[in-house]
Amino acid sequence: MALRLVSLRKRTLTRSGQAEQAAAGFTVKSGWACAVLIAGTRSSPRLIDSRRVEISDPDIPDTKQPYHAGFGTARDAGDELKRLVGSVKTHGRKSMSSLIGEYRKTANLTAAGVVVGSLIDPKTIGNDHIRIHAMEGQLFREVLIAGAERSGVHCSVWRERDLYALAAKQLKIAEAVLRKRLTALGDNTDGGWRAEHKAAALAAWMVLSS
């Protein structure tokens, strides 16, 4: 899912000779995240890069759903679960460190927006299957944020269902117009520009505007 729009080895400089300010956006999925890098201004954002970032370890398939022992079945607490969760943390933080290091070759990146499906505490969920998914969502979100903040990138977090309404208010753009502009933002990508790309781009745009 790497959609390279410019060479990330070239830093874009402002008139003062400083690296251009940019913001990253992430939409967290099961075991991976959609990442984008946005630069420009509040009124004229520009997409620099879009790609997939692996949070789980591709060499260990069970890290995609570490709390699952099978469909709807929770994995028992024990050494295997600890090993899988530990692998997610190790691989996810390395992935984020590598990504942010690469992005900083292009622009001055200090903040990011993170889009998630839910912020509910898994402990409050009674249904076992839903709770397992919530635990995995929480794990992937926390690993991504920890990796970013360890690299000096402060993260703001939004639920996906709240994102467009909050962005329309913050950016002072009607939601319908906002959606059209986000679609146009991905016009020059070489691959897909789906809902997760747009959400990540919007989160980055909100961070950039503030």
Question: By helix and strand content, what is the structural category?
Answer: alpha/beta
How many angstroms separate the termini?
A: 28 Å
Largest sheet: 6 strands, mixed
Number of alpha- plus pi-helical segments? 5
SSE arrangement, N to C: EEEEEEHEHEHHH
CATH 4th-level superfamily:
Ribonuclease H-like superfamily/Ribonuclease H
Q: What is the CATH architecture annotation?
A: 2-Layer Sandwich
The stretches of 5 or more residues where confidence is low (pLDDT under 50) are 1-11, 13-17
Highlighted features:
5 helices; two-stranded antiparallel ribbon; 210 residues; Nucleotidyltransferase, domain 5; disordered N terminus; 6-stranded mixed β-sheet; alpha/beta
Task: Walk me through the structure.
The chain has a single domain (3-209), classed as Nucleotidyltransferase, domain 5 (2-Layer Sandwich), CATH 3.30.420.10. Helices cover 41% and strands 23% of the residues. It contains 5 helices and 8 strands, in the order ββββββαβαβααα. The protein has a 6-stranded mixed beta sheet with strand order 1-4-3-2-7-8. A two-stranded antiparallel ribbon has the order 5-6. A hairpin with a 3-residue loop joins strand 2 (21-28) and strand 3 (32-40). It is globular. Mean pLDDT is 90; it is low at 1-11 and 13-17.
